[in-house]
Amino acid sequence: MKKKLMAILTVMALCLSLAACGNNSTPASGQETAARDTAQSTEATGSTENDNSSQAQENSTQVQEEEKNKVAKDGADMQTEDKSIATRIPMEGGTKINMYFGDTLITGVLNDSETAKALIEKLPMTQHMSRYSHDFCGVTEELPYNEDDVHYGWLNGDIDYALNAPYFTILFEDEDVSEQYGYQVNIGVITCPIADIAALQGSYDVRIELAAEETESKENVMEESSKDKVVSDSKSVAVYFSRVGNTEFPEGVDAISSASLQPDGGNIKGNAQLIAEWIADEAGCEIFEIVSEEAYPADYDQTVNLARNEQSGGVRPSLISSLEEPEQYDTIYLAFPNWWADLPMPVYSFFDEYDFSGKTIVVFITHEGSRFSHTIDTIRELEPEAEIVEGLAVRGGSVKDEEQDIRKWVQENR
Ligand SMILES: Cc1cc2nc3c(=O)[nH]c(=O)nc-3n(C[C@H](O)[C@H](O)[C@H](O)COP(=O)(O)O)c2cc1C
Predict the structure, then answer these.
(1) Element (DSSP H or E) covering residue 128
(2) Better pLDDT: 268 or 312
(3) Is the distance from CB of 39 to CB of 84 less than 8 angstroms?
(4) At 117, is the secondary structure helix, strand, or coil?
(5) Ligand 1 pocket test target in 246, 340, 373, 398 with most atoms within 8 Å of CB
(6) The whole model's pTM is what?
């Protein structure tokens, strides 16, 4: 038995030393970049020059197979196949972007990939990102991608879209060992010193927008004119739906103990309601509340269950409030809570009632972790002829801490 064990250990040690040998032959990072570039150009011409390392790779296949299913300590998938695929898509020019981590500006440039183009369409947008060992990263909305662009690894400074979530990520450390991490599409690079981003800690709601000269040079007249609609002299209205205005609370409800209810002077206010009030104040516009004919139960859990049933049944609750002369508005700021990763059904009823073709709808959502979910896409489907602008996703429990940011956003974007 002992002999058998020794024999197995010897074979494993041999395999491991072959794998380590393969790693030792990997060039240092500068050379590695060149090697990746070469790999990319040879791939384009159909050459098989890279095969000279295939013997070592074959020998370590067994070990690689075992490693394939490992998960890194930050939860990312670790891959060991296809190490030679280039990580950075070459680019000429590109689209310059600004990313604001609080007061710190991280500049970047996006390439011409299908994924980057789709992201550019969404700008300006706010992306929640947190610092990890080798990147700043956050779950993002799904973007299209070309299978041929999916690769392993990165070069420090890459901006990538990682398919396994999906994530928007800025990678600034660990380029040398990055080939273990798969399912990435390179969409650009940062253009400021890497030290600027590496110095940041914690989490941010990162505002990503086209750099000023990009906005100015944008040829798309449609887009320019729709941006013009969010200007101060256009007529706007701040529309909101909140649980508070749609619930009959019994006397003496303990509003303070509920994260979704905000005591405001003697009143209880909803999170989306507060946002709409701040928007109306900044934009100098009217305010309108979506009110369902039938009130939701005062009991939170009952409301949660009822909302789910309404959603699965496609129920469109009748509304008792109506927007006077909706055609007078160019911009509709809309604030509502995320309910079951979707719009509350009375907000669907609101969209059923009005046609906002040719208008701009700026969306603000309150949530407890799900952020926008797919609500932006849903509103685009409900109002296909309107320009839908992603505003801010605000955590309901801390809405009052966000007041200044919300006001600033409206000032800067109206
Ligand atoms: C019926 C219901 C469903 C909810 N579903 C979600 C959800 O899927 N994801 C999430 O992050 N928060 C969810 N929440 C939390 C609310 O989005 C959050 O409390 C919000 O700030 C409430 O805003 P309001 O005060 O304007 O109603 C849900 C709340 C309710 C009442």
Answers:
(1) strand 125-131
(2) 312
(3) yes
(4) helix
(5) 340
(6) 0.50
